[in-house]
Write a structure and sequence with these properties.
single chain, 322 residues, mainly alpha, Oxidized Rhodanese, domain 1, 2 domains, two-stranded antiparallel ribbon, 6 strands, 6% strand, elongated, Rhodanese domain protein
């Protein structure tokens, strides 16, 4: 039990600074979970060796500092920030897309919801900044979400302190070999997700169509089917699409694929770095027998940078695309 006692003494001596640092690092986007520390601090508060109220205050302050940082970066460097977050995320496209969908459905309440979903808590602040939300309103909702986040897990640790002590004792009893195995499994999972993502991009790299090639095809009257795969929230923020493009959310692709022609080129694009969403849709359609589907290299951002023709999306994407 010496290891358990030493850990407890360390938390008693350095609990507040350690909690602040862990929350700040987690909210900045690094894959270091603060939840175990929140639960452990809450368990210590049940013995009177840690202040529950100060723990909640420290958690809220750490969250507000990190989230205000990402909020302002999103306000002034939106696409670059999302690009960076997507590059360091294991599930870049789904993380951003899910957060955008939450904003579409809940508005600023999505900032509160995002606090409890891994990955979304870091993506939500820059998206709020990109959406033009006022800093005062953002901090109000973000502070409330941070209060719920810190209060919930610290209180769980407080009320289930005896169970937490039993778990900690069991971990110490198991020893370092089991912990090493857990660390190895975590590293293997991260490596697999990274390999899976890189394999997808390599598979479709040679099949991508460049902005210049798509523009040449349109000017030549070849009439390819162009699918805009951005989220509804992003489209509402910037409703312009590539000329002739049809907007579909990812969930509609499987249901509406029978509308797509097999004898025409299909070009899919999104706004994700490395065209991850469009690459996955292209792969899905290829497996369903669509041999002429290609992701747009650089996505919508590359098309905008080239100052190529765009048009305002009108109505719903319900027209038949065949």
């Amino acid at each position: 039990m010496n290891g358990l006692n030493e850990t407890s003494q360390f938390l008693i001596r350095h609990g507040l600074p350690l909690l602040f640092a862990a929350i700040l690092v987690e909210q900045m986007g690094l894959p270091i979970p603060a939840l175990p520390l929140l639960l452990a601090a809450g368990a210590l508060s049940a013995t009177g060796k840690f202040s529950l109220s100060l723990g909640i205050v420290v958690t809220v302050i750490a969250c507000l500092i990190a989230d205000a940082f990402w909020f302002y970066l999103g306000r002034y460097r939106g696409n670059q920030v999302l690009g960076f977050l997507c590059r360091i995320s294991l599930e870049p496209d789904s993380c951003v897309r899910r957060t955008q969908n939450v904003f579409t459905r809940y508005g600023l309440r999505g900032v509160v919801v995002a606090k409890f979903v891994p990955g979304m808590s870091t993506v939500a602040p820059p998206l709020a900044g990109m959406a033009g939300v006022g800093i005062g309103r953002f901090l109000l909702f973000d502070g409330f979400g941070s209060l719920l986040y810190g209060g919930l897990y610290l209180c769980l640790g407080h009320f289930f302190s005896s169970q937490m002590e039993q778990i900690a004792a069991a971990i110490v009893h198991i020893g370092g070999s089991a912990l090493g195995l857990m660390a190895a499994l975590a590293a293997a999972f991260i490596s697999y997700k990274y390999w899976q993502r890189r394999s997808l991009l390599r598979e479709l790299r040679t099949a991508r169509i460049s902005v210049a090639e798509l523009r040449q095809s349109l000017d030549a009257g070849e009439n390819p089917v162009i699918l805009d795969l951005r989220s509804k929230a992003e489209l509402e923020q910037n409703p312009s699409v590539i000329r002739g493009a049809i907007h579909l959310v990812l969930d509609e692709i499987e249901r509406r694929r029978h509308e797509f022609p097999h004898d025409r080129d299909i070009v899919v694009y999104c706004s994700c770095p490395n065209e991850v969403s469009s690459a996955r849709v292209a792969q899905l359609l290829q497996r369903k027998g669509f041999a002429r589907v290609r992701p747009l290299l650089g996505g919508i951002d590359a098309w905008r940078e080239g100052d190529h023709p765009m048009e305002m999306r009108t109505g719903n994407a319900t027209a038949n695309v065949s």
